[in-house]
């Protein structure tokens, strides 16, 4: 199995976390956004944590946060993926992300991508190097720059605050800083991200904690990241991912 990561251009960093190219069976953790995946090989079986397996031959969308996703194929398995940041995918789809949160959705079912040329462009490049796919997708992004710059100001502000505070922010304080009511903020998140702001904050905090675990004591990490204690961190990890920190990082 070979997983090749590619950084997006700086201009797209607010929308795209990374590109990746996968060659061979693998299990991937999807954190912090939606992933758009182009199948460049044989039909692939997608195993999304908590859902039935789905075999797909065309491009597909993975929605939701903190989902462990497995890819396997009987033949040639090659995938190119675009992992969006929270709210980065919203200019693509007017449908609320809550409708495909935590699921694998075949792109044929997402009518808004039809006619835009991105699927056809990626298909024509089968066999190209991973960087070539990234360049092709960058060209598509550039052609839709105006749409990307029109994403929700309030949601972008809220995500920035959550990131700044490493997830340790109350929803009342978050709504107040964004100048909207808590209910209005939750409604915007449902439409543009697919989870509540509280859930996103919990995921940011957990992601930060998991990033520290391989090199730090678990109890120290829990205190540093705002958990009451180590058992609180363990419960939160199991609640959000179905795995304990030691299962996510065997050395922790």
From TrEMBL:
Coiled coil: none annotated. Keywords: DNA-binding, Transcription, Transcription regulation. Residues 152-251 form the HTH araC/xylS-type domain. Pfam families: DUF6597, HTH_18. InterPro entries: AraC_XylS_family_regulators, DUF6597, HTH_AraC. SMART domains: HTH_ARAC. GO terms for molecular function: DNA-binding transcription factor activity; sequence-specific DNA binding. PANTHER family: HTH-TYPE TRANSCRIPTIONAL ACTIVATOR RHAS-RELATED. This is Transcriptional regulator, AraC family. It comes from Desulfoluna spongiiphila.
């Amino acid at each position: 199995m070979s997983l090749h990561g590619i950084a997006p251009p700086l201009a797209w960093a607010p929308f795209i976390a990374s590109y990746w190219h996968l060659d061979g069976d693998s299990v991937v953790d999807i954190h912090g956004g939606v992933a758009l995946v182009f199948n460049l090989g044989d039909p692939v079986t997608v195993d999304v944590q908590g859902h039935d397996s789905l075999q797909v031959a065309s491009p597909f969308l993975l929605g939701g946060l903190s989902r462990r996703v497995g890819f396997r194929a009987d033949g040639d398995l090659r995938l190119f993926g675009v992992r969006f940041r929270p709210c980065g995918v919203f200019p693509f789809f007017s449908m609320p992300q809550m409708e495909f949160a935590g699921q694998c959705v075949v792109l044929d079912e997402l009518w808004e991508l039809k006619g835009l040329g991105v699927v056809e462009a990626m298909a024509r490049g089968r066999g190209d190097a991973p960087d070539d796919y990234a360049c092709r997708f960058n060209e598509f992004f550039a052609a839709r720059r105006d749409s990307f710059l029109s994403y929700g100001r309030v949601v972008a502000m809220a995500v920035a605050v959550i990131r700044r505070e490493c997830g340790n922010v109350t929803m009342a304080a978050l709504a107040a800083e964004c100048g909207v009511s808590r209910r209005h903020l939750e409604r915007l998140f449902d439409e543009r991200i697919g989870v509540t702001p509280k859930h996103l904050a919990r995921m940011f905090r957990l992601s930060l904690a998991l990033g520290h675990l391989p090199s730090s004591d678990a109890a120290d990490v829990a205190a540093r990241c705002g958990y009451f204690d180590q058992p609180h961190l363990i419960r939160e990890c199991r609640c959000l991912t179905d795995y304990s920190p030691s299962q996510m990082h065997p050395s922790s």
